[in-house]
From TrEMBL:
<dbReference type="Pfam" id="PF21857">
    <property type="entry name" value="DUF6913"/>
</dbReference>
<dbReference type="InterPro" id="IPR054207">
    <property type="entry name" value="DUF6913"/>
</dbReference>
<protein>
    <submittedName>
        <fullName>Uncharacterized protein</fullName>
    </submittedName>
</protein>
């Protein structure tokens, strides 16, 4: 209980620091898209790369939640809250590899507040970051107000096409 409060405070500080220090310059013609979501919405993003018109190898998904929960597709990167240290560092090598990538677009969708996912989103280098409301930390360049995951995905596709066209 005590360590979770410390971790929460540390994550909040690291998120704010990452946003304060955020610098990104797109390198080349990057088409990579990353998704950070929670277990409740994982199935909604399977095959989403086709809707965006990108290759499967340019599409990465991080699922925030406990590995012990059912329904996890092991092809996805899993961010278990236990894998975040008290200092707010990610311990898992797949999560660190996700952070090392440069993304053209980062999509975040959480069914409830998710500090670990927000920390990962804040530290991930991306040309644009799209996410669902509410954005408590100011991470997203585009905050999407949608009543359902389907509506959210439709809005992502619409904004992504506009974003691609202008780049």
């Amino acid at each position: 209980m005590f360590s979770s409060k410390i971790k929460s405070i540390t994550c909040n500080r690291k998120i704010r620091k990452a946003l304060r220090d955020r610098q990104y310059s797109a390198r080349g013609n990057n088409t990579r898209v990353g998704v950070i979501t929670d277990l409740a919405d994982l199935r909604s993003f399977s095959g989403f790369y086709k809707d965006l018109g990108i290759k499967t190898e340019d599409f990465s998904v991080v699922v925030c939640g406990s590995i012990a929960e059912q329904g996890i597709d092991l092809k996805n990167i899993v961010l278990d809250p236990k894998e975040i240290s008290l200092t707010g560092e990610f311990r898992s090598e797949p999560t660190k590899a996700f952070l090392r990538q440069d993304y053209n677009l980062l999509i975040c969708y959480f069914s409830q507040e998710n500090r670990g996912g927000s920390l990962l989103a804040a530290e991930t280098m991306a040309g644009k970051k799209f996410g669902n409301k509410p954005d408590h930390y100011g991470i997203y360049d585009v905050e999407i107000y949608a009543d359902s995951i389907c509506e959210f995905k439709e809005e992502i596709i619409k904004y992504y096409k506009i974003f691609k066209k202008n780049n």
